[in-house]
Design brief:
The structure holds two protein chains of two kinds.
Chain A: H1 3-25, H2 29-53, H3 60-85, H4 97-118, H5 124-146, H6 150-170, H7 176-204, H8 210-216
Chain B: H1 2-35, H2 45-55, H3 66-85, H4 101-121, H5 125-156, H6 161-171, H7 176-192, H8 211-214, H9 220-245, H10 257-283, H11 293-313
Helix pairs in contact in B: 1-3, 1-9, 1-10, 2-9, 3-4, 3-9, 4-5, 5-7, 5-11, 6-9, 7-9, 7-11, 9-10
Chain lengths: ~220, ~325
């Protein structure tokens, strides 16, 4: 394993963080879904590269699942959902984009500090990959917190899960079963959330989550 | 003798950037027209425009001060000096020790300062709008540029462009922070050159223009000088990006004439590719609203910051 192959793995993991920031920045539905598909494609490339350099052919399976399921099927389905819900206009974000971005940088810094301390004994490249995975995860959480629209919250959730897969493949010896079951649980979650979206819309005529707050009497 | 040859090489670089700048503008316009399935003006059109403008008489507003008349030359000289400090076809020219990323940023900053001043000098409303917008964008683009300079300096151990280029040639590799810095650099370059997502260089629609609004009052040779300076700035940014991120082909210090020739050919190739990519990006994207631009530039600032942060935390990024 020479330096270059590790560099490429590193670059791909860094690319995931970059695409996560792009997700935070996008405020239009279709652009958001396209960037999400890009996120999945980068993830799949990263996992496939890990499979290549770790000599672990079973890792090609999660790579293929990520590419097909999250790179193609889920974005296309979400496109359909967005069209059927008729919400292809601008999404509102809580606070400005600049503020969200600053929070994002803070989260990346946090995950670096935490990971570099917590895994001080590990191989430096592996621990930085873990730090990247943690930041993708936290950025996904941030996205779920800052968006009001249910569809973009789903995208945040899915990108969070991409971070989990990135962490799992960076560490050696993760059993294949776990990865596959995680991938499929996301598909199930997507179906359940999709059903819920339409139920919410039927009930409240909107997918803005503020309406739920009003319904519960939390907003005066 | 050696010194004379070196001075000749440096002089060749200064002349080269000045001569190539209008050609680059003509090239980008041509490619853009071809991408839109139009024929476009000939490649040499910018030269003809410059000649025509120089021959025309200068029309001055009644209340134009000395600043208005001397401003264009100050802008051109600052930009020209900055452009001739960037290693284009060779590193380690005589003046390369002043070819410092921060110095270049400062030179461009002073050129922008004069541009904003002359925009406000006559006191028309468009000039004022253009200057205030330019300053608003600059207040975000310059910190981003400084962040980029710091990140590169942390990586290479110097802010000198020749040194950075040689460092990249010797032990450049795929690094996350370099990727972040490249994206930030491209955003800053688009904003600084008033290219499409930020400003449209071809428009004269009053409400959206920034750069054109500032130079609206100029005519004759003053306008020619300003247009030349704008072309030089575009050339400067493309050369800057290519010398930092694609340094292959640069002739090292004291190389034979053949090395310089190779450097020249690869430099022209880099310019052609860079210009083409720029135009491709421009034709595939729409201009954004003025109030969206701070967000766009904020991303460059953020990426620069992130790259620096990663480098501080661990050297292997």
């Amino acid at each position: 394993m020479d330096g270059h192959s590790l560099d490429i793995a590193h670059m791909l993991a860094g690319g995931m963080v970059l695409v996560s920031f792009m997700l935070l920045y996008q405020d239009r539905m279709f652009a958001l879904l396209n960037v999400f598909a890009l996120h999945a494609v980068v993830l799949s490339a990263s996992v496939a590269w890990q499979a290549h350099i770790q000599n672990a052919p079973h890792l090609y399976v999660p790579a293929a699942i990520a590419l097909v399921l999250k790179g193609i099927i889920i974005p296309v389905a979400l496109h359909q959902v967005v069209i059927r819900l008729g919400i292809h206009r601008t999404i509102e974000t809580v606070g400005g984009i600049g503020l969200t971005m600053l929070f994002g940088i803070g989260l990346v810094a946090l995950s670096m500090v935490v990971m570099l301390r917590a895994a001080a004994a590990a191989d430096p490249l592996a621990r930085e990959d873990l730090a990247f995975a943690l930041s993708v995860l936290l950025l996904g959480l941030l996205m779920m917190v800052t968006r009001r629209n249910a569809v973009s919250q789903i995208v945040g959730f899915m990108s969070l899960e991409n971070g989990l897969i990135l962490a799992a493949t960076g560490a050696r010896g993760m059993p294949l079963v776990v990865e596959i079951s995680v991938a499929f649980s996301v598909l199930i979650a997507f179906i359940v959330i999709g059903v819920f979206l339409f139920r919410i819309r039927e009930r409240f005529d909107s997918v803005e989550l503020e309406v739920l707050d009003e319904f519960r009497g939390e907003r005066r | 003798m050696v010194l004379i040859l070196e001075l000749i090489a440096q002089g060749a670089q200064m002349i080269l950037v000045l001569l190539l700048a209008p050609l680059l503008l003509g090239y980008t316009r041509k490619v853009k027209a071809r991408l839109l399935r139009r024929r476009g003006p000939p490649l040499l059109q910018p030269y003809r425009d410059l000649l025509r403008l120089i021959r025309k008489e200068v029309v001055l507003a009644q209340n134009a001060s000395w600043l208005f008349r001397s401003g264009p030359y100050m802008i051109l000289s600052a930009t020209w000096v900055a452009a001739s400090l960037v290693p284009t076809f060779a590193t380690g020219l005589v003046f390369s020790w002043v070819g410092d990323l921060i110095a270049i940023t400062a030179l461009l900053g002073s050129a922008r300062f004069f541009l904003a001043l002359v925009g406000m000098d006559v006191g028309t409303s468009f000039g004022g709008i253009g200057s205030s917008r330019e300053m608003m964008f600059a207040s975000l683009a310059e910190p981003a540029m400084i962040m980029i300079a710091f990140t590169l300096a942390l990586l290479a151990g110097s802010t000198q462009l020749s040194y950075i280029a040689e460092f990249m040639l010797a032990n450049g590799s795929l690094r996350v922070s370099l990727g972040l810095v490249l994206v930030a650099f491209i955003i800053v370059a688009l904003a600084e050159n008033a290219r499409i997502p930020v400003d449209n260089p071809a428009t004269h629609l009053e409400l959206t223009m920034v750069h054109e609004a500032m130079v609206l009052e100029y005519s004759g040779r003053h306008l020619a000088v300003i247009e030349l300076a704008a072309g030089l700035k575009l050339l400067l940014y493309i050369s800057l990006i290519s010398c930092i991120f694609v340094p292959w082909g640069l002739a090292p210090a004291g190389s034979p004439l053949a090395g310089y020739a190779v450097g020249m050919v690869t430099y022209l190739g880099k310019l052609a590719v860079g210009g083409f990519l720029l135009v491709l990006f421009e034709t595939s994207i729409a201009k954004m609203r003025v109030f969206r631009v701070p967000d766009f530039l904020g991303i460059a600032l953020m990426l620069g910051l992130l790259g620096m942060l990663l480098l501080f935390v661990s050297r292997s990024f």
